[in-house]
Amino acid sequence: MSAGPGSLPRFMQWSPAGRGLVFVLAAASIWCLLAEMYRLCDMRTFTLWILVPATVVLYGWAALDRVRGDGRLFRAVMIGTIGGLIGAAAYDLFRLPFVFSRAWGLEAAGVPQMPLFKVFPRFGALILGQPVEQASYSLAAQLIGWGYHLSNGATFGVMFAAVIGEARGRHGGGWLWAVLMAVGIEACLLLSPYTGFFGIPMTPRFVAVTLTAHVIFGVGLGVWFAWQSRAWAAPGRVAAAA
């Protein structure tokens, strides 16, 4: 197979084939949870044998592209990762007043108390091979669960980069597409066994809050891509923020 710029074959560059492979590797993070919910594979097995190897391959490949390729795949993966983490941070910051409404005295102002961070230690417990429901979760379960949550945000950003190909022009590929992707993710979760699996009541209030949070994730991701659009064309370097 012929190689383009650099010394890597075309399927290992930022070509349609390369983007497809990047998307598949990044999607391993969310598929880890989906496989558990649909009883295809438990999260512990999936993490050890699929998610961790896929993550190592993805970022190892990106590093290789920086050294031996034209750097476009490396920049895309880094921009997507950072954008996804920015979106995840905005997503969680929006939800904080609901999680700590009672402690912060916000209930009187009409902000309901909602257990929106309830799932994170449960993610960790499942990855550790422990029961999903426990009276008290270990520090390891808490940290691993939060780490898994952030990995979802980062890899959604990489998947978005793979879909749009490159962020070009003043609008960086269109932040609206990032919002639509985020809303699509939320819709898929609501249609999945997610709420029932983790014992979350499917109320109109829950749907409204989580849908708004995903819109905010999409805005954060899209604005970052718009800001970093020039970095895609900058040979040999990633965005300065990376």
Oligomer: single chain
Strand content: under 5%
Instruction: Give the radius of gyration.
Output: 19 Å
**Tally of separate helices:** 9
Unreliable runs: 236-242
Q: SSE string, helix = H, strand = E?
A: HHHHHHHHH
Measured as a percent range, the helix fraction is 55-70%
Task: Report the sheet with the most strands, covering strand number, pairing sense and barrel closure.
Answer: none
How many domains? The number is 1
What does the average pLDDT come to? 91
Shape: globular
Assign the structural class, choosing from mainly alpha, mainly beta, alpha/beta, alpha+beta, or little secondary structure.
mainly alpha
Distance from first to last alpha carbon: 32 Å
Can you put this structure into words, describing what you see?
- The protein is built from nine helices and no strands.
- It has 242 residues and is mainly α.
- The protein has one domain.
- It starts with 15 loop residues before the first helix and ends in a 15-residue tail after the last helix.
- Mean pLDDT is 91; it is low at 236-242.
Give the gist of this structure.
64% of the residues lie in helices and 0% in strands. The chain has 242 residues and is mostly helical.
Write the SSE topology.
Elements lengths: L15 H11 L1 H10 L5 H26 L3 H28 L19 H9 L11 H26 L10 H17 L2 H4 L6 H24 L15
Helix pairs in contact: 1-6, 2-3, 3-4, 4-6, 4-9, 5-6, 7-9
